[in-house]
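Reopening: Sulfotransferase 1B1-like protein still failing for me.
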Amino acid sequence: EWIDVPFTKHKIFTCNNFYLPEFLAKSLEKFKQFQVRQDDVWIVSFPKSGTTWVQELVYLIENECDFKKATQDSIENRSPFFDYPSPGLKHIENIKTKRIIKTHLPHSFLPDEIEKKAKLIYIVRNPKDVTVSYFHFTNLSTQAQFTGNFYDFTKLFIEGKVPYGPWWNHVDDYVTKKDVHVIYYEDLHTKPFEVIKKLSKYLGKDLSDDKIKSIIEWCSFDKMKNNPAVNYEWYKDLGLYKKNGHFFRKGTVGDWLNYFAVDDSQKIDHIVENKLKTKLDFNYGIS
Ligand code: A3P
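Support: Ran it again with your exact input. Result attached.
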């Protein structure tokens, strides 16, 4: 069913109670049938939850901290976006080496084979900072035609009517799955060593403390912001991003405090308490 959400150049449609952009609608069957490999690593998230950060971490863990190799190709080539028409499923099928695949798809749309085969990492970020980050992203992307202000955007987020929304169903469907390795964006800020150690263990890699420290350093916000292999500045030349903004925007916990109206903040609290079925303890950056 197609619905009229004033959001993107792509029409939005609803399926399984999720709101998905048009380019996904055409591929849902193909997604289901996609052949998963035993050694695939899938990095999954609701948009703006820290996906790129984790993609770079996983790439380095998988490639024995080969920093040079990590600069030789863009993050979207090293860790392709499954849902997006470019580079496309054919390209991902043809990758000969171990695949690190990014997707924002809700769990019910993943390939049928996913759970019995691949490793699955899910990133969660507190929903207030997600809202702020997503709002800015709609201004950065030329694919969005959202003209409203932050309050208009927040209203849509609260109604669940943003691409890949509702956020609470997206999160619930992943964090309740037994074999999914969950990472909190905020934990990457407060205890990166522990998070990366656990993540490496999940990936079957035993990294030395020094290597973990060098990964933390490499993946700091400032380093990544200035790293042309990950900072998506090339999207400006491709016309996908506007010139006056950056994918690496702020990268903090608690920026929502600069944006949210009190009653909207309470509405999100209500969502976390009542609509989100799993009890999750979010770090909102208030000490
Ligand atoms: P902000 O808009 O709050 O700055 P995704 O990769 O899922 O699209 O998420 C993007 C968000 O993660 C952005 O949030 C971005 O700045 C933040 N981010 C990306 N890399 C980061 C890093 N190394 N450290 C902290 N935040 C990072």
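Strands lie at 2-3, 12-15, 18-21, 41-45, 100-103, 119-124, 180-184. If you still see a failure, please send the error message rather than a screenshot.
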